[in-house]
Specification:
Number of strands: 0
Helix content: over 70%
Number of helices: 8
Largest sheet: none
Low-confidence stretches: none
Radius of gyration: 16 Å
Mean pLDDT: 89
Length: about 130
């Protein structure tokens, strides 16, 4: 999900490369950069809005306008993408993946993962490998 949004954002920016890039696209690009750096440890959308010097309300407005989701949903999408990557390409246990993603409760991680994919992390891994 996040990769698709980033591709869409980059395509919009490329469209404006010849001229002035709109400030909302600049803010969104910076948001994606921050998410990539901090998604494992910082789970408060307000951190990102403060770092970008915009209100959370305005940042959510931008993300809804361009990607039809909130900052929180973008954060969750990035965490989920990383979880899928770790399940596919690593030999880490579910517990180790939970901690790698900055979470503390493997059962909560499994619940969140199942909510998005419809599969437990174990079943997901079995189906991929």
């Amino acid at each position: 999900m996040l990769k698709e949004h980033l591709t869409l954002l980059n395509n919009k920016i490329i469209h404006f490369q010849q001229g002035h890039i709109p400030s909302d696209l600049v803010v969104l690009k910076k948001l994606f950069d921050l998410l990539e750096i901090h998604f494992r440890g910082i789970r408060q959308p307000s951190f990102y809005s403060e770092a970008l010097k915009v209100t959370l309300s305005n940042l959510n407005y931008l993300t809804r306008q361009h990607f039809n989701c909130t900052v929180y949903e973008l954060m969750q999408g990035r965490i989920h993408e990383e979880a899928e990557k770790l399940l596919k390409y690593s030999t880490l246990t579910i517990k180790e993946i939970t901690f790698e993603l900055g979470m503390t409760d493997p059962s909560y991680f499994c619940k969140c993962f199942r909510k998005i994919t419809g599969l437990s992390p174990k079943r997901f891994r079995e189906g991929v490998c």
